[in-house]
Specification:
The two termini are about 30 Å apart. Strands 6-9-10-3-11-12 form a 6-stranded mixed sheet, with helices on both faces. Strands 2-1-4-5 form a 4-stranded antiparallel sheet, with helices on one face. A two-stranded antiparallel ribbon has the order 7-8. It is of the alpha/beta class and about 250 residues long. A hairpin with a 5-residue loop joins β7 (about 105) and β8. The protein has 9 helices and 12 strands. It has helices spanning about 40-50, 70-75, 95-100, 120-130, 150-160, 180-195, 205-210, 235-240, 245-250; strands at about 5-10, 15-25, 30-35, 55-60, 65, 80, 105, 115, 165-170, 195-200, 215-220, 220-230. α5 packs parallel to α6. Helix content is about 35%, strand content about 30%. It has a single domain, classed as Rossmann fold (3-Layer(aba) Sandwich). The protein binds adenosine-5'-triphosphate (ATP). Adenosine-5'-triphosphate binds near residues 12, 17 and 37. GO terms for molecular function: ATP binding; ATP hydrolysis activity. It comes from Streptomyces mangrovisoli. InterPro entries: AAA+_ATPase, ABC_carbohydrate_import_ATPase, ABC_transporter-like_ATP-bd, ABC_transporter-like_CS, P-loop_NTPase. Keywords: ATP-binding, Nucleotide-binding.
């Protein structure tokens, strides 16, 4: 199993953002995390990223119980994130963006660390993009010259390059048109096909339901449903998101 959260609870003062949230992503699986506004999706994703620490429950990465107190902890366990805003630097090239926060150093002539090895960076970028069948017009243009779909692809490739266990995605199709959304969905399947677990938070129910293996629906901070995606239709998802049939169990 790549990543799991079991019976997680999280409070912010008087707000109980999560009260019994669980999910589990196997390697090679896409798990869709759905829920209405305020259901706790972002909080849950931030816990899996190491940004927030749960008050209750436990996290498991690569079959080992873990405690993560920072994003760096999550990254050290092979868990990386594609943020909704992509966290790309618009003025930097594709290659530079792939290494933001992960600069590759080599020993300089005097044995000092601190020189970026550009050739290695370029080669690793090319390999990462090739493995995901991502074609870009150039690796040296600033990110701002790329289309929204291409930028999303770079952000996904960066996360995959630094992940060995799981990739978390926050609304990967929210800013994209139909065709680019389809390409990003294909890319997500490719990422899972490389043996990573994928957890995706989205409001794009039809598209994500079509590519997910499993669906977890949060309702008021609780996992209300955790089933194979093939067992659900979009109206089923909506009904659970809005709490149809959940009021008694959530009370
Ligand atoms: N840092 C915080 N401080 C206080 N309350 C918070 C904080 N983060 C989230 N909450 C509250 O926790 C609850 C769950 O919020 P969260 O953002 O996780 O939901 P969501 O499902 O991601 O919603 P949306 O789809 O609107 O982004 C909400 O009531 C929210 O106001």
């Amino acid at each position: 199993m790549a990543i799991a959260a079991e019976h997680v609870g999280k409070r912010f003062g008087h707000v109980e953002a999560l009260r019994d949230a669980s999910l589990r992503a196997e390697r090679g699986q896409i798990v869709a995390l759905f829920g209405d506004n305020g259901a706790g999706k972002s909080t849950f994703l931030r816990i899996l990223q190491g940004i927030h620490q749960p008050d209750a429950g436990r996290l498991v990465v690569d079959d080992q119980p873990v405690s993560m107190t920072s994003v760096r902890d999550a990254q050290a366990l092979g868990v990386d994130t594609v943020h909704q805003d992509l966290s790309l630097a618009p003025d930097l090239s594709v290659v530079d963006n792939m290494f933001v926060g992960h600069e590759v150093l080599r020993r300089g002539p005097l044995g000092r660390m601190g020189v970026l090895d550009r050739r290695e960076m370029t080669e690793r970028t090319e390999a990462a993009l090739r493995e995901l069948s991502i074609n870009l017009p150039s690796l040296t243009v600033p990110i701002s010259d790329l289309s929204g779909g291409q930028r999303q692809a770079v952000a996904v490739a960066r996360a995959v390059m630094w992940s060995s266990t799981a990739v978390l995605m926050d609304e990967p199709t929210a800013a994209l048109g139909a065709r680019q959304s389809e390409l990003v969905c294909d890319l997500m399947r490719t990422v899972a096909g490389r043996g990573l677990g994928v957890v995706v938070v989205s409001h794009d129910l039809p598209r994500i339901l079509a590519i997910a293996d499993r669906v977890v629906i949060l309702f008021r901070g609780r996992t209300a449903l955790d089933v194979p995606a093939a067992d659900l239709t979009v109206p089923d998802v909506v009904a659970t998101m809005v709490g149809y049939g959940q009021e008694e169990s959530a009370a």
